[in-house]
Amino acid sequence: MRRSIATVSMSGTLSQKLEAIAAARFDGIELFEADFINHNGSARDLRRQAEDLGLGIDLYQPFRDFEGMPDAQFQRSLDRAERKFDVMEALGCPLVLVCSNTSPLALNDPERAAAQLHELAERAARRNLRIGYEALAWGRWVNLYQQAWQIVERADHPHLGLILDSFHTLSLKDDPSGIAQIPGERIFFVQMADAPLMSLDVIQWARHHRNFPGQGQLDVETFFEQVLLSGYNGNLSLEIFNDVFRETPNRRTAVDAMRSLLYLESQVRLRLNQRAQTPDAPEGAAAARALQRLDLAMPPPAQALQGYNFIEFGVDEAHGQALGETFEALGFEHVGHHRSKAVDLYRQGDIQFVINTQPGSEARQRFDDQGPNVCAFGLNAADPVQAANRAAALLSARHHSPLGPQELQLPAIIAPGGAVVHFVHQGTPLDADFEPRTTGASTATGAGLTHIDHVALALAHDQLDTWTLFGKAILGLQAGDSQELADPFGLIRNCALSTPSRELRLVMNASTSQRTRTARQVHTTGHSGGSVHHLALATADIFATVRRLSERGVKWVPISANYYDDLLARLDLDEALVRQMQAHHIVCDVSEGGRYLHAYTEAFADRFFFEVVQRDHYDGYGAVNAAVRMAAQTQARPR
Ligand SMILES: O=C(O)c1ccc(O)c(O)c1
Ligand SMILES: [Mg+2]
């Protein structure tokens, strides 16, 4: 299939958009009319520029308020269309999108609409152009694809076909399962868009909050599968109206865009395979034909990730010393020093922390760039090589670290924002690369921390969708619901990604305000792409763990007394338990029959902090407690 994207989906001037789209290896564009009108260059020059970049101008759009008009307006619209056909000829663009009429003058008369579209198609045919008719969700009389299709059928002209847009169908909760019955050659173009679920006027939702397939919550896979079962063989295109994309660097948007299409194709390929293997299944034969006809993307399958293997921190010597002391206070044991590098390994339970201060290393460069930070993650994967191959097939860069003698080579990729993700066989200890520490200098006995419960990232607001797609497509994670958390100086948007089994959890925090701690972290690191905000470490007995750590000098974020009074009012908890929580700075969430107890340490070097958590049949992250934590952090360190 030809892969294309609407120019409205990206930031920049039209020329910059074309360059970014071409660099991400799209085949063509939907030229959004406003982009062309505002472009300082002729249609012929634009055509030449697109050709030079290997891009087709596959669709010109939109042409508005055409069908079902009274005769006088209809004649005027035909003149308007002829002028646009002139532009299309000069552009070398074969197809124009006519979206359903939103004018108050439009008549509720499908026969008139069909006759007028027939006339338009006849005019287009004289120039060998084609007309595609799309139902807008807010069209005056036509807003469902079935209505648009009935009008196209009734108009019965070979130069008139249907345009489908997943947003309009799915936003209205219309059933896409009739699409497979439409003859594929009568569908002229398909636009895909996802979106988060929002209770918003549909026009506002459509014009400001669409995102790429895989970044939202609409069932775009079912929609696209239906399209392919129809026999459709045209463009797979993205048309995304999104306020954030309008300011996101367009090279990143274009890569996200292509990644979303490769992911969508590969997911739907799996569905079609399933249907084709069971010939009795509905549409089994149509699925087999689609697979034969199309070259859908086929990356290696997603791996079920089995938790964090290690977390690597990039620091200088002074911070390395302090961080090692912090780890020991947290009950970690300093178990090894790297054979050939200034790298140290700390362990407690299944948690492995690596401190890298090696001069000249990438970890150290990241420190120079952003201060103390998490520069790499090790994730347990059943097949690490295949996990990295999938990432590369879905456009992640591979990472190779220079190897010392006898060092393990771990397949690795670069995450958005530059941190390295290594894939590791579960249970592989890092010890092979480390000289064991036998001095007995470290006598940490452990504090009951067993594994990493989750890692939370601080992201710039334009990185949320990028990370969501990276997590879903490349790491095989599922996205949870998005929430808004109140920092004293603005709102934080929060969304969790996790494996279905919850063995690996990642939480994304993005600030919509410039003044929150999260925003400050994004600014001071100079990196919008994500730095670790906190690391949550699990214990089976949080009271014992907090006591142990307090004895070892760990400092906790102080929680207001009012919080505990409110807990007693709000939840049916034993007063003695609540007072014990208060004495330990522990906060609590009780929901859906589960309970989450957690406490926050002071931040290390004003960067990341640690959270100690006890999770009992609880699937969330204590988001209800984020506000009291952020208020407490701000009061403890006002700035
Ligand atoms: O918001 C709009 O007007 C609009 C225009 C053209 C489209 O293809 C579309 O999906 C929406
Ligand atoms: Mg559309």
Low-confidence stretches: none
Structural class: alpha/beta
Heterogens: 3,4-dihydroxybenzoic acid, magnesium ion
* Average residue-wise pLDDT: 94
The total of helices stands at: 20
In terms of quaternary structure, the protein is: single chain
Summarize the helices and strands and which ones pair or pack.
Blueprint (H helix, E strand, L loop, with lengths): L2 E4 L7 H10 L4 E5 H5 L5 H10 L3 E8 L7 H21 L3 E5 L10 H17 L3 E5 L10 H11 L4 E6 H6 L15 E6 L9 H7 L11 H10 L6 E3 L11 H28 L6 H10 L14 E7 L2 H13 L3 E6 L4 E6 L2 E6 L5 H9 L2 E8 L3 H10 L4 E2 L12 E3 L5 E5 L9 E3 L12 E12 L3 H11 L3 E10 L2 E9 L6 E7 L5 H8 L6 E9 L2 H10 L9 H10 L4 H9 L3 E5 L2 E7 L8 E8 L9 H11 L3
Parallel strand pairs: 1-2, 1-8, 2-3, 3-4, 4-5, 5-6, 6-7, 7-8, 9-12, 13-16, 18-21, 22-25
Antiparallel strand pairs: 9-13, 10-11, 10-17, 11-12, 14-15, 15-16, 18-22, 19-20, 20-21, 23-24, 24-25
Magnesium ion binds next to loops.
Structure notes:
Its EC number is 4.2.1.118. Catalyzes the conversion of 3-dehydroshikimate to protocatechuate (3,4-dihydroxybenzoate), a common intermediate of quinate and shikimate degradation pathways. The protein is of the alpha/beta class and 639 residues long. The strands form three sheets. The protein has a nine-stranded mixed β-sheet. Strands 1-2-3-4-5-6-7-8 form an eight-stranded parallel barrel, surrounded by seven helices. 52% of the residues are buried.
